[in-house]
Protein: Cytochrome C
Organism: Microvirgula aerodenitrificans
Amino acid sequence: MNKPLTLAAILLAGLSLTAHAATAAPAKDPIQARKHVFKEYKKSFGAMGDMVKGKTAWNKDEFAKYAANMETLSSQPWQYFPAGSDKGKTEARAEIWTKPAEFKKQADSHQAKIAELAKVAATATTLADVKPAFGAAGQTCKACHDQFKKD
Ligand code: HEC
């Protein structure tokens, strides 16, 4: 009898924290907000991927600009996963909320790899310079999607 009560208390504490955060942030639907950030991800990361794949011409300044933009974006989606936002038009898996430490680990590792990519891109001259860091960053998208996103 004790265990469920404790869990309920933890969940309630989490909910009230979320409510506080919601008053501080602009009143937006969190599902829409995170999808919006991920759409911006797709624009920048997709354009970088096109250069890496040779679909578009390598341009080191453009690549560095996209990488810097990714670095800014990479801190943004995670605030938009409050408890309860697993309901609605979302591909987010319930595991985000049942395994929050795992989710945070993936998000942190992702941010670290994106930061590395931005650093490499800032001084890169050739496509070969950025390929490994781009690949490593891309792996963090896939790793998180495999575990936490429905497809
Ligand atoms: C730590 C986890 C995590 C990482 C890292 C991550 N994503 Fe996602 N991504 C998600 C989740 C969860 C969703 C589903 C969001 C929803 O539907 O509410 C998503 C959704 C998306 C979407 C769909 C947005 C839409 O229109 O509905 C795109 C595109 C996307 N991610 C691109 C990327 C790219 C590119 C990267 C890497 C540069 C990346 N993501 C890294 C968790 C992650």
